[in-house]
Amino acid sequence: MTEFGRRTVLAGLLAAPALRRASAQANIQGTINLVAYAGIFQDNYTRTVVEPFKRRFPGVQVNYVPGGTSAQMLGTVRAQARDPQVDVVLMDVTTSHIANLEGLFDEITPAEAPSLAELDPAARAVGLDKFGPAVTYDHLVLVYDARDLRPPLATLADLWRPDLRGLLAISAPPNIQGLALTAMVEKMEGGDYTRSVDKAIAKLRTLAPSVQTFEPNPDGYSLILNGVVRVATGWNARAQLYSDETNGRLGVLLPPEGSVFQINTINLVKGSKNRPAALAFLNYALSQEAQKAFTERMFYAPTNAAVRIEPAALARTAATPANRARMIPVDWVGIAGIRDQWNNRWRREIIAASGR
Amino acid sequence: MEQSLAARDHCGQRPLKQPSLALMAHLVLTGLTKRYGQTVAVASLDLAVERGESVALLGPSGCGKTTTLRMLAGLIAPDAGRVTVADQDLTQVPTHKRDMGYVFQSYALFPHLDVAANVAFGLAERGIARSERDRRAREALALVRLAGFEGRRPRELSGGQQQRVALARALVLRPQVLLLDESLSNLDARLRESMRHEIREIQRNLAITTLFVTHDQTEALTMCDRIAVMNRGRIEQIGTAREIYDTPATRFVAGFVGRINTIPLARDATGLNAGGIAIRAHGVPDGPVDLFLRPQLVALAARSEPAGDANRLEGVAARTVFVGDRSEVLVDTAAGRLVVELAPGAPAPADGAEIALLWAPETGRVFAREDA
Amino acid sequence: MKAPARIAWLALPAGAVLAFVYVYPMLDLGRMSFNRTGPTGAMVPDWSLAIWRELLADPFTLELTWNSIVLSAVATTGALLLAYPLALFLFRTDSRWRGLIAAIAITPMLVNGVARVFGWLAILGDRGLVNSILLSAGLVDQPVRLVYNWTGVAIGLTESLMPYMILALMAGFGRLDRTLEEAAASLGAPPWRRFMRVTLPLSLPAIVLGWLLCFVLAMSAYITPKLLGGGRVFLLATEIFELAVTNVNWPMAAALALYTLILLLLFLAAYGALARRAA
To answer: What are the two backbone dihedrals, phi and then psi, of residue A100, each rounded to the nearest 5 degrees?
Structure first.
């Protein structure tokens, strides 16, 4: 599902005319409301995508509405189904899939958003090839205290190191980090999550007593930086950013045993009050220019297959050939269907084994 | 030191009981003192109560009488002084070990317990068996004429009934000393009167040493063997009702107990006069003085009637007031308006009638003027 | 208790507000619980008992119920034991510090719940105050796990209930009268017996009121269990939150919320019946 980059050269050639067509529509006017993640994501997305878009489309005002979790964003869209106030939503693929099925989001064609043509086919596929496509790729990492943890964390199996007993923060399902970890451990144990997660559950059960919290608050990164735990599960993009901000105190590991992509999609709300402007923004967000700027700023892997990322930044994403080779293909929509089962097994077999 | 303070400080003009008597007394307070900040609530108070005797602490509100009672019960700690009962110093003994019955002004019945349980409350503390408790509670309730009320809740009782339960609750323990704090003041007039006699009767039958705090002189006069009149934290006078009434020791006692006429006196070369009319009196202190004269000790007479040895003051009958059991005549004289009680059977003077007032010199009491 | 019909219209504004902010959302919630959830979480409008059947057939529902009741009862009782002496002191004292002490006791209500929880993490964490003391005193050689588990949630919840308990107790102490204890003393009862025979029975209404109020608050608390539970503590309130906000299973969240509401109503009805019998 992660075939982006293969036709980079060809796509690059197509990119320039696509952008030119977009600028031809620069007479688009009005206001759109964009709902996406808050905090550090909002800061960087505003700087690298929203602001440049506004310069290109001076007639369009973009209101960035911080939306909490993807599920909360879905709640907002559901509540406004009859009279949508939101035009564009950026959310996790599992929730955008629900919204697609519920008819809350609209279909988009490459004629309306030429950038679509440049996307990695998998990015289109998660939107069922007609709804909002993937806009960023992230992946699960293990973050650790690079200052105090000796030796540093090197593998997924290192989580079971005896010296880490009581010093782990593992986000359990239904958090998707926990779902991703389940798939990764199953792979590490030689299994295939699409058939069974028995091996993962059995292995994680032996990890449970080492876990200090299955629900890190506010997040694993802060718990490490505050010295509460040594190792946590995390997302690559944020982890890379925190790592920079702390001068490398936070170590980021893409486990050699493999990792799993987390996918954010960008979606057009059905009944948008300013469809042309919303499409223009969506198109821009998927363009090479925006994808490059955001990836180099925040280390989300791009979904635009034509984009050229600066090598230093690229190396810190999952988009390099070496990293891509480690990724475990995951069908998030499929996992959403069995999420409750995994959730229950975590609760009854793993968390229950960690004591009260 | 407290004792010597007490000896120096005691305020009555008449000497207190002899020390030998105090030693024999059942309940003795010595130099009892309580201050609240700058205010002295009780100032080195001495009091001795005989076994079985009933003494009233009578005084206006704020005179320190309730504070005294609470110190006696151990509900508040005195700043100085001692409390002894039967020669046992109880000053440092906590309330629950003092063996004193206390009947509160508000009755303080336990609202969550029925009447029988209220009365048996103290018996349970003494570890008395349930059946014995029930029996004694029934007896005590019968004593206060509340037999059959055992299962009622306090809120289902009238004020007088609650009062009697409170009394039974205290008496059932046969305490050494019974303390009553304004215990009748929340009752209506008729009930109060019958309760006065009832309590007095019980107290006498049980021969229980009793201290009764009240601001109502009728209560004090009818319920107690002796009365201690309190004012500003001190006892002004202790004595029988008759003594207090007939021979008040201080100006305060004279004014507080019973109705009385206050006649300002002036001095001239020949002696005292009231409004220019020469007056004779006994026991006259130096300085400006007033004459205190009970209304029933003054006789109404025709102007023509000879005065003899009595003092005589002419006046005009302004009005006659019938107050139920007697009539009073208001008389305007050169010394101001005086109240005179009409002798039983005597005809009331017509309004405006010119009359004379006569009284024997020894019946009036003369005290120094307060604001002088 | 019955208002004359003449002034019944006074209740109209309150009734309208209640209908708008309470009844309408409740009906909406009820409606939602009869929808179905598709295999990947999409909500399917329907009139179906599928969700309710699933909810009531799942043994986990019973486990959540039991967990919530036990934890709420423990935290509420803990708060009662801690708050009672303080409330009694505040009710009685005429000390000039009374206002200040009362303010300090109530202040936690004004502090954001999240901030309070992070305070507890700092105190109870592996490297927190308590463990530092225990470790340096040599009482333990490993940090004692006081947060991210049931202990932590119970402690945090107890603390968060304290101000409400204090207020409820002070409001309910109406019948407590110092004179009654003096009367008990004069009848020979030492301090402890006075407390047991007079103060405690008379403050029973306050205790019941406070316990009830705090129990209901505890049952619906989710911030504290969420932040202090370390993902180990599964309660009705946290599960509703999880279902609604993480799993996007609104019909199930709605059904569980109504289930909890019904549970609390049954509890209140039982209390009402008990209180009537006691009266």
So the answer is: -60, -45
pLDDT tens digit string along A246-303? 999 999 999 999 999 999 999 999 999 999 999 999 999 999 999 999 999 999 999 9
The reply to whether B93 touches chain C by the CB within 8 Å rule is: no
**What is the distance in angstroms between the Cα of C83 and the nearest Cα belonging to chain A?**
27
Domain extents for chain B?
2-99+175-256, 261-368
Sign of CA dihedral A125, A278, A16, A287: negative
Q: Is residue A2 part of a domain?
A: no
Mean model confidence pLDDT for chain A: 90
Residue A48 is given by DSSP the state I
Cβ distance C186 to B126 less than 8 Å, yes or no, reads no
- Residues A190-213 as b or e (16 or more Cβ within 10 Å = b): ebebeeebebbbebbbebbebbbb
- Give me the domain span that covers residue A148: 142-259+328-354
**CATH architecture designation of domain B2-99+175-256:** 3-Layer(aba) Sandwich (3.40)
State residue B240 phi and psi, 5-degree precision. Answer: -70, 165
Task: Show residues of chain B in contact with C185, CB under 8 Å.
Answer: 74-75, 94-96
Q: Which of C183, C191, C194 sits opposite B102 (nearest CB)?
A: C183
Q: Residue A203 is part of a domain; what is its CATH number?
A: 3.40.190.10
Which chain C residue shows the shortest CA-CA distance from B106? C179
Mean pLDDT in consecutive groups of 10 residues from the start of chain C, 279 residues = 65 83 88 86 87 92 95 97 93 84 82 81 87 90 88 94 93 87 95 94 90 94 91 94 86 95 92 78
Do A115 and A22 fall within a single domain?
yes
Say if A and B touch: at least 3 Cβ pairs within 8 Å: no
| Dihedral-angle region of residue B78 (phi above 0 means left; psi in -120 to 50 means alpha; beta otherwise) | beta
Angle between the N-to-C axes of helices A176-188 and A332-345, in degrees from 0 to 180, rounded to the nearest 10 = 90
Is A touching C (3+ C-beta pairs, cut-off 8 A)? yes
Domains in chain A, number: 2
Q: Assess whether pLDDT exceeds 90 at residue A350.
A: yes
Going from the N-terminus, what domains does chain C have, and what CATH number goes with each?
A: 62-246 (1.10.3720.10)
Check C230 against A175: CB less than 8 A apart. no
**Which residue of C114, C235, C248, C249 to mutate against A (max A Cβ within 10 Å)?**
C248
CB contact under 8 A, A78 and C250: yes
Chain B residue at shortest CA distance from C187: B122
The answer to whether residue C73 neighbours chain B at the CB level (below 8 Å) is no
Separation of alpha carbons B290 and B272, rounded Å: 10
pTM over 0.90: no
**Claim to verify: residue A103 and residue A159 sit in the same structural domain:** no
Give the domain B261-368 fold: OB fold (Dihydrolipoamide Acetyltransferase, E2P) (2.40.50)
Integer Cα distance of A108 and A93 in angstroms? 16
Reply yes or no on whether the pLDDT at A6 is more than 70: no
> How far lies A18's CA from each of A14, A23, A116, B214, in Å?
7, 9, 10, 105
C191, C193, C202: residue with CB nearest B125: C193
Question: What ipTM was assigned to the predicted interfaces of this complex?
Answer: 0.84
pLDDT at residue number B196: 87
Rounded Cα distance, B315 and B333, in Å: 4
Q: Which residues contact A122 (CB under 8 A, 6 or more apart)?
A: A1, A2, A3, A4, A134
> pLDDT (tens digit, 9 = 90+) per residue, A166-207?
999 999 998 999 999 999 999 999 999 999 999 999 999 999
Q: How far apart are CA C44 and CA A55, in angstroms?
A: 42
- Using an 8 Å CB-CB cutoff, list chain C residues near B73: 182, 186
Q: Locate the chain A residue with the closest alpha carbon to C126.
A: A228
Q: Which residues of B are less than 8 Å from C202 in CB distance? A: 110-112
State how beta strands B54-58 and B209-214 pair.
Answer: parallel
